[in-house]
Amino acid sequence: MQPPKYFHIGAIASLVILIAWLLAWETVVAPLRPGSWILSLKVLPLLIPLGGVIKRDIYTLQWSSMVILLYFTEGVVRAWSDKLEVSRFMAMGEIALVFIYFACALLYLRPYKKAAKKMAKELLEKVNSTKSTK
Asked: Where does the chain cross the membrane (predicted)?
């Protein structure tokens, strides 16, 4: 069973937009200090799974859906604690983009997870039936 293509497209789009969003936030829109770009390096870990997400690699989608939660945590902390209104807005955007990626990745993986459970159940039944006949 092939998962809907729009979940894959949603995962790619939200990941690419999140990378651009974070770069813009930390370099142009609301850097912590004027001229400071060092915090923009936080996008580097997001570049690692990008190729696998584009290629529909199941393993990459699985682990990246867990790693992305670190960015959700950062967004929540900064939405709560940043003093600048524009920075809080950017943090809320980060939260939304992470949520979209997470949801799209899980919904894309759902049919694969169901198929894997079905195969494991069938294999277990086969093993149990051969044991009982001996």
From this structure: 7-25, 37-54, 61-80, 86-109
> And the tokens for 69?
């939660």
Contact call for residues 3 and 108 (beta carbons, < 8 A): yes
d(CA 8, CA 2): 11
The confidence score (pLDDT) of residue 38 equals 85
pTM: 0.85
Q: Identity (one letter) of the amino acid at 33?
A: R
Task: Compute the distance between CA of residue 92 and CA of residue 85 in angstroms, rounded to an integer.
Answer: 11
* Greatest Cα-to-Cα distance within the chain, rounded to the nearest angstrom: 75
Token pair listed for 56: 């529909």
